[in-house]
Every structure is written in C-alpha cells, then in structure tokens.
Amino acid sequence: MQIGAVLARMGLLFFALAVAFLGAAPIGFWLFGWEGVAAAGLAVAVCSFAGAVAELSPLFFSQVLTQVLFSMLLRVSLPMGACLALVGLKHPLVEAGAIYQLLVFYLITLIVESSLAVGRMRRQESIGSL
Fold first, then answer.
1. Membrane-spanning residues where (predicted)?
2. Average pLDDT over residues 59-85
3. What is residue 101's predicted lDDT score, i.e. its pLDDT?
4. Among residues 42, 15, 38, 18, which one has the least CA distance to residue 28?
5. Is it the case that residue 49 has pLDDT exceeding 90?
6. How far apart are CA 13 and CA 52, in angstroms?
7. From residue 112, how far is each of 7, 73, 115 by CA, in Å?
8. Buried-most residue among 28, 56, 65, 117 (CB within 10 A)?
9. Which range of residues forms the domain containing residue 87?
C-alpha cells in the first residue's frame, strides 16, 4: 500500500469531519454557548486522531482482515475511551454535550472509513483475481 493512498483517505476523512463540524458547531453554540463549540471541537479532534491512526493499518498489516479488525479496534476504543474519561473526570464538557458530539462524530467516522475500507477491499480483490 502506498502512503499516497493512505494520505488521500485521511484527507477525505478530515474533509468529511470538517464539513460535519461546520454543521455541529452552530448547534453546539446555540444549545450550550462556547462550551458546545468546544465539545464539538473535542469530538472532531478525537475522531480525527482515531480515524487517522486506523487508516495507517495497511502500512503495518498485509492481510485485509487484520487491517479491518485493527482499524475497527482503534476506531472504537479511542472515542469510547474519551467518553469514559470525560464522564469519569466529571468534565464540564459533558454538560455541554461532549458525549453526544463524540457519538455523532464517531458514527460519521465509521461511515466514511467503512466506505473507504470496502473500496480498498474491492480493489485488492480485483487485483488478486488478475
């Protein structure tokens, strides 16, 4: 797997999350003020990091199933770990909707990365059948 393809997939993920942030930030501001915008920013940062690290899996694993499982593990554990940490610390952003924002951005990340993974698997499958 070439690093250019990995960077392109990361760029698509970041673009999708940025567009979603442009929709979520005004709603967060309307409901909770600047803390709502900060909650949306935290959610985007956590999900972007989890997605970027998950996209690196083809560089370390050669089998598609291993790539998908490793990506899934990272994509789920980092945002959910952030949710647990925020609740456990009783952080003020929890009151500003950070948990809901994390869940929404997690689902957006899941949809984007799943579509990219299916496309990657189809390309590898077609190359393998040649």
1. 12-32, 38-61, 68-87, 99-119
2. 87
3. 95
4. 38
5. yes
6. 8
7. 14, 16, 5
8. 28
9. 1-126
The CA distances from residue 7 to 2, 20, 39, 71, 104, in Å, are 9, 20, 26, 15, 24
Tell me if 81 sits within 8 A of 98, measured CB to CB. no
Q: What does the alpha-carbon distance between residue 98 and residue 78 come to, in Å, rounded to a whole number?
A: 14
Number of domains in the chain: 1
Helix axes 34-55, 64-88, angle to 10 degrees: 150
Cα angle 48, 11, 58 (rounded to 5 degrees) comes to: 80
Type of residue at 98: A
**Which phi and psi angles does 57 have, rounded to 5°?**
-60, -35
Q: What is the mean pLDDT of the chain?
A: 88
Q: Helix, strand, coil proportions of the chain in percent (round to 5)?
A: 90, 0, 10
Confidence of residue 124 (pLDDT cuts 50, 70, 90): low
